[in-house]
Structures are given as C-alpha cells and as structure tokens.
Design goal:
With about 280 residues, this protein is an alpha/beta fold. The protein is built from ten helices and nine strands. The protein has two domains: about 170 residues, 3-Layer(aba) Sandwich (Rossmann fold), CATH 3.40.50.620; about 90 residues, Pantoate--beta-alanine Ligase, Chain: A,domain 2 (2-Layer Sandwich). It has a six-stranded parallel sheet, sandwiched between helices. A three-stranded antiparallel sheet has the order 7-8-9, covered by helices on one side. Helix 6 crosses helix 7 and helix 9 packs antiparallel against helix 10. The longest helix is centred in the middle third of the chain and has 16 residues.
Length: about 280
Amino acid sequence: MPDTTLRFDTLGPLRARVDAWRRGGDRIVLVPTMGALHAGHLALVTHAKAIGRRAIVSIFVNPTQFGPTEDFSQYPRDTQADLALLSQAGADAAWLPSVETMYPTGFSTRIEPGPAAEGLCGCFRPGHFSGVATVVTKLINQVQPDIALFGEKDFQQLQVIRAVTRDLDLPVTIEGVPTLRETDGLALSSRNRYLDPSERSIAPRLHAVLADIAERLARGAEAGPLVAEGIAALTAAGFGPVQYLEVRDAQTLQPVERAEREARVLVAAYLGKTRLIDNVAVVPA
C-alpha cells in the first residue's frame, strides 16, 4: 500500500508515470468516479489492487452528463477528503482533470451510444449517456488502463460503456463489480447524503421491493403484474414519482416478460428531492 496516493492534475505527468509503471510490467486498473467517495468506491479500489498492480482513480464531476435541471452545481465535492480515503485504500494515483482539460475551448466531439442507452434512464435524462460515453472514452484514452471498473448499481451505464468500448475497439477490459449495500439493503451512493432522516428510513424499501420481484421472477412469474405491484408498494412507502420499474434482459437490456435467462429488475424513483436508482439480478432457477 502506498504511503500516499500520487495526485495528477495535468495529463503529461500522469502518462509519464503510467508509462513507467507499464515498462516495469505493472497492470493498470482504472476506477472512474465523480468524487464524494464512499465505501462502495473504496471497494472498487480494493478490487483494483487485487486484480492489478496499480490502481488509478479518476475524480471528475462531468458537466456533460447532467441535464439543465439536475444537480451539477450542488453535487458534493470534497477533494481533500477523497484523497485521504484513496490513500487509506491503497490507490496508487488520483487523476483530477479540470473541466478545461477535459473540454478545452473548441471541443465539439460527442459519442452517441446505441440501443443500450435507450429507455430506462435514457428516457428521463436526455443526453446523459452521450456525456457518460464521451467522458469515459476520454478517461480510457488518457489513462490507457488494462481494466476499468464500474459498479453494477449503474447497470445501464455499465452496459453502455461495454458497448462503446466494444464498438470503438478500445483496448480495455470493462468489469462490473457488484453493488455494495448498507446493512438494511440501501445501495451506497454519493446522493444518499441528500436524504433526511425520515427519507433514509424509507429508502431501503427500494431494494426490498426489487429483491421480492427478482425472487418471484426466478420462480417463473410474469413481469407485468409484479411490476404493477412493485410500483404500488413504492408509492405507498413514500416514493414518487417512480420514473420506471422494469425487467430487462441482463445482456441486451431489452424488455422481458419472463426470465428465461439472466435478467435485471431496474428502478429509478424519487424520495423527496433525491433520485435513487437500483437494480437486482434475476437468475432463473
């Protein structure tokens, strides 16, 4: 474990350090984040160190993936706390590009992802996945890792990134890491800090409803009635609006009525002013 995580704010020194590590035979693993780090991010760092010699964590709140009414300006930022956590977790380097570095004057290129970005969050966050695809492609080109890790909580995002790296022949392996949860089931998220105590007590119902639907789907039930029940249960618990609650094929993200192979139950719902997302795997018996 390094005594301190190396900080890079400009691309030249970062690439020089990565090149030196690679010449020494080190495997490079990238963990892209928007900061406001929590135990879920640190679990990704731990996994990165387990599968590769060097773990590089990027911290960049990406403006192009936020809509005009979303929380870009309010998104939590605490660089010093994040760097302290990364040092404790054993990250080798932190890449902290500025907006000007990522999107210099005259920048005009965007990546438009394909079918994986359609529906679900793609319906409610226009342009979001284009922003994600563009910034992740830039981060991969900047760091040139062997592996990049993404949490499965943002499952649609994970599938979009897999599709983009495949379609553009990017020389990187994309690996999804299971969602880390609180003891009551709530998926760890930087936005959980927006919840007031009353909302925090309600929030675990999101995972509980998904887990119930997934269990019944695995036993052969049809998705339609379960989804209707799930939306009603979330609404009764205090969520609203429920933007979507759907069952999708885990590979193609196409809607399915029965889980004949692995599927995912995915949800996005507001609790007060906080938008929460989650998903649970369905593995047929």
